[in-house]
Amino acid sequence: MKEMRKLKITELNRMDADDFKTSEKLPLVVVLDNVRSLHNIGSVFRTSDAFRVECIYLCGITAIPPHPEIHKTALGAEYTVEWKYVNNTLEAVDNLKKDGYKVYSIEQAEGSIMLNDLQLEVTNKYAVVLGNEVKGVQQEVINHSDGCIEIPQYGTKHSLNVSVTAGIVVWDLFNKLQTEF
């Protein structure tokens, strides 16, 4: 078996925070609709940094940086990824739609599109709404969305953790949307 040497952080050739701020971003906004867990919020920041998400909207009861518990999982991504707080998720969704974004709620709903069947236009801008850990995305927000995306699941559980969901969805959309990185 071939030995593999684990790379050192200095060998990963990651950009610094200043370069990140001016780099090309994925045309994707992640909207957190009343997410309670500070660790989930931090994890979404870290995932969004990894795939150069344009912005995170923190809505309702979703906490905002700076916060030590967000930092614990974000590991500084809360300083690199652009974010804004919007009190009302519905207002955030409506404003994104006015700005030309196609908005999808990540939710199990009638007529939802399975993530693996989702087809996107690389010339469009997108936003995904991730919901509260217990209640999911608010029905009113779903009603204002352009559609719902569902992650196929084959086990006994009804849902995935919101930060895991964010990782799966952002990675999939990155693969479908990125043209040059």
Structural summary, described in words:
- Helix content is about 35%, strand content about 20%.
- The protein has about 180 residues and is of the alpha/beta class.
- The chain has one domain: 3-Layer(aba) Sandwich (Alpha/beta knot).
- It has a 7-stranded parallel sheet, with helices on both faces.
- Helix 2 packs parallel to helix 3.
- The radius of gyration is 16 Å and the shape is globular.
- The mean pLDDT is about 95.
Brief account:
The chain has 7 helices and 7 strands. It has 181 residues and is an alpha/beta fold.
Secondary-structure blueprint of this entry?
Blueprint: H1 17-22, E1 26-33, H2 38-50, E2 53-59, H3 68-74, H4 77-80, E3 83-86, H5 89-98, E4 101-106, E5 113-114, E6 125-130, H6 139-144, E7 147-150, H7 162-177
Parallel strand pairs: 1-2, 1-6, 2-3, 4-6, 4-7, 5-7
Main β-sheet, in a few words? 7 strands, parallel
The CATH fourth-level homologous superfamily: SPOUT methyltransferase, trefoil knot domain
Please tally the β strands and state the result.
7
Bin the strand percentage.
Answer: 15-25%
Instruction: Look at the structure and give the CATH class.
Output: Alpha Beta
Tell me the series of helices and strands, N- to C-terminal.
HEHEHHEHEEEHEH
Helix content: 25-40%
Terminal Cα separation, in Å? 33 Å
The computed structural class is alpha/beta
- In oligomeric terms, what are we looking at? single chain
Number of domains as seen in the coordinates: 1
